[in-house]
Amino acid sequence: MRRNEAGRPATDQDLANLQKAVRPERPNQRHGAWAFLAGRDLPPESEWALEMANAIREEILSEEALTDAGPGEGAKRRLVIDSITRVQTVALLLFKDIVERGLSWTTKGGKEVKNGSLAALCSYENTLRLGLLTLGLEARAREVPNLSQYVKEFDAKAKKMKLED
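The chain above was modelled as a monomer; its predicted structure follows.
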């Protein structure tokens, strides 16, 4: 157990003061991702991320209701969907942190510090991608017509429009 200067058990404020004294150049991380992972409530300014992730979860669940899952498969898929929701919430919070604070900043001493949220975001996005693959929701390249196909389709539409006139 940590103790303050007076020998009493350290409070959260004592630890915050100690951290400021040791690392004064580091900006406060207020995105809430680490609090969310620790099971604590999100700060009010970060509630939007949980709402957005839950909306995505509901959309995936409604799509899941249309698929035929075997016995026990539905519960497994719901666990994966819940995991995806948690990962998506953290990824949204980390992305917001990067947008607000940038990829790096310079301390008062002139030292450049990289934003650790970028590495964490890459990791969470990969986890999200793998979770979506598990559900069978992979990104597929759409078919793009080449120029000759486009010209043929365009001519066919033009002829059709002339016939209607």
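The radius of gyration is 25 Å.
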